[in-house]
UniProtKB/TrEMBL annotation:
S-adenosyl-L-methionine-dependent protein-lysine N-methyltransferase that methylates elongation factor 1-alpha. InterPro entries: DNA_methylase_N6_adenine_CS, Efm5/EEF1AKMT1, Mlase_EEF1AKMT1/ZCCHC4, SAM-dependent_MTases_sf. This is Protein-lysine N-methyltransferase CMV_024652. It comes from Castanea mollissima. GO terms for molecular function: nucleic acid binding; protein-lysine N-methyltransferase activity. It comes from the Eukaryota. HAMAP family: Methyltr_EFM5. GO terms for cellular component: cytoplasm. Keywords: Cytoplasm, Methyltransferase, Transferase. It is found in: Cytoplasm. Residues 1-22 are annotated as: Disordered. PROSITE patterns: N6_MTASE. Belongs to the class I-like SAM-binding methyltransferase superfamily. EFM5 family. It is an enzyme of class 2 (transferase).
Amino acid sequence: MEEEVKNNPITNSQNGVVVDDDTPTLSLETLAALKEFLAEQNGPPVNAEPEEEKEKEVALVTEDWRLSQFWYDRDTAETVAHEVLTLTQPSHSQSDFRVACIACPTLYAYLKNFNHDISVQLLEYDKRFEQYGSEFTFYDYNQPEELPLEMKHAFHIVVADPPYLSKECLEKVTQTISFLSRPGESYLLLLTGEVQRDRAAELMSLRPCGFRPRHSSKLGNEFRLFTNYDPGNRLGGWEQED
């Protein structure tokens, strides 16, 4: 669900409008969003991307803010998807290397777009994603282990984006990750707020990478990508500890 506003999705400067004593003026961020909207209404610009580039874009259902859904921007989705695909390389067959995406449908969609044969399971609360058939599993983090038994310790890579930035939510998602992952073997990637840094280290021994995830909705919270393995030069590397 790539989620919660993650405390509050709209940074409240009058919902993007800066008000002085006289005439209200739009903030730079709001002006940019308005310009983008008008450009879409007026058709593609002269220097629009060629068709082959546009084919790389992935279509997703509309974000539902009531479910705290905020999709990754394209660069974030592609970067994380390429990292997952890189981690599958030691396997002779990517279809045998199982990936679980917990509440991150954007990543699922990009992975399947890059490699249709990769084995990916999406665990998601929003039932609109039932369109993915057998690769969709309904998931409610409040019931972290109410999942099909065949999923237990079955995944080589587990990527999670907890829906909320609360201690309780991360603890329950951690239970799900433990249920899905192969003890001592699985690669774990966690996308969540910087505020969860200490909890991620305490619960799963995860460390932050230099790469900073971003969302299409330009959320105000600082997000990070944490891993249980050293990515080397990828993902900006592990952030050096003080």
